[in-house]
């Protein structure tokens, strides 16, 4: 998929995360936990507190272990729609996170961004990697794009390391 194949109102761009994006980023993170949280008998306040705690822990982990990564907001037609975090290392390009809000999923923006990262990885001769939960719907997208499972799920039994290399 190319920019030209995405409807004009859905042009995809990136901009670096700014301090005032935190509320939006919490919302994006929360959208990844909706199915799971629908099964717990918590109040909205409890769910919000859980999301906030988990978001803070995730951000601390990403920034501590990937201080030179890029942390970007995905924009569709100039409007914030998701996040893309990428660590470029000497031996790989690692997608730390790519998430679109539910109303923006399935429209081609994620595929476009992944293909751009695949082109980047190919141009520098590095593999492109990402961890994906075994139950995540996006697993099929990655497999269709040519990512392969590098191992069985981690010791936690949940996450696959997927890798793409120029064929």
Q: What can you see in these coordinates?
A:
The protein has five helices and seven strands. It has helices spanning 22-31, 34-37, 44-65, 109-124, 138-144; strands at residues 12-16, 70-76, 79-88, 93-100, 128-133, 148-149, 159-164. A hairpin with a 4-residue loop joins strand 3 (79-88) and strand 4. Helix 1 (22-31) packs across helix 3 (44-65). Helices cover 35% and strands 26% of the residues. The protein is of the alpha+beta class and 167 residues long. The chain has a seven-stranded mixed β-sheet with strand order 1-2-3-4-5-7-6, with helices on both faces.
Shape: globular
The tally of strands reads: 7
- SSE string, helices as H and strands as E: EHHHEEEHEHEE
Helix content: 25-40%
Low-confidence stretches: none
Tell me the layout of helices and strands.
Blueprint (H helix, E strand, L loop, with lengths): L11 E5 L5 H10 L2 H4 L6 H22 L4 E7 L2 E10 L4 E8 L8 H16 L3 E6 L4 H7 L3 E2 L9 E6 L3
Parallel strand pairs: 4-5
Antiparallel strand pairs: 1-2, 2-3, 3-4, 5-7, 6-7
A few lines on this structure:
With 167 residues, the chain is α+β, with helices and mostly antiparallel strands.
What labels would you give this structure?
alpha+beta; 26% strand; 5 helices; globular
């Amino acid at each position: 998929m190319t920019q030209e194949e995405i409807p004009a109102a859905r042009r995809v761009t990136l901009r670096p995360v700014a301090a005032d994006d935190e509320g939006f980023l919490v919302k994006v993170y929360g959208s990844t936990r909706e199915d799971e949280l629908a099964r717990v008998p918590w109040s909205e306040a409890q769910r919000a507190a859980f999301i906030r705690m988990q978001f803070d822990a995730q951000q601390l982990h990403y920034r501590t272990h990937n201080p030179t990564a890029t942390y970007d907001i995905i924009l569709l037609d100039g409007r914030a729609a998701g996040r893309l975090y990428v660590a470029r290392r000497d031996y790989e390009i690692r997608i730390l996170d790519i998430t679109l809000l539910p109303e923006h999923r399935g429209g081609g923006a994620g595929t476009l961004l992944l293909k751009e990262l695949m082109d980047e990885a190919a141009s520098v001769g590095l593999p492109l990697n990402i961890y994906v939960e075994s139950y995540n719907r996006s697993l099929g997208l990655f497999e269709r794009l040519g990512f392969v499972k590098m191992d069985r799920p981690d010791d936690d039994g949940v996450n696959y390391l997927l890798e793409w290399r120029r064929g």
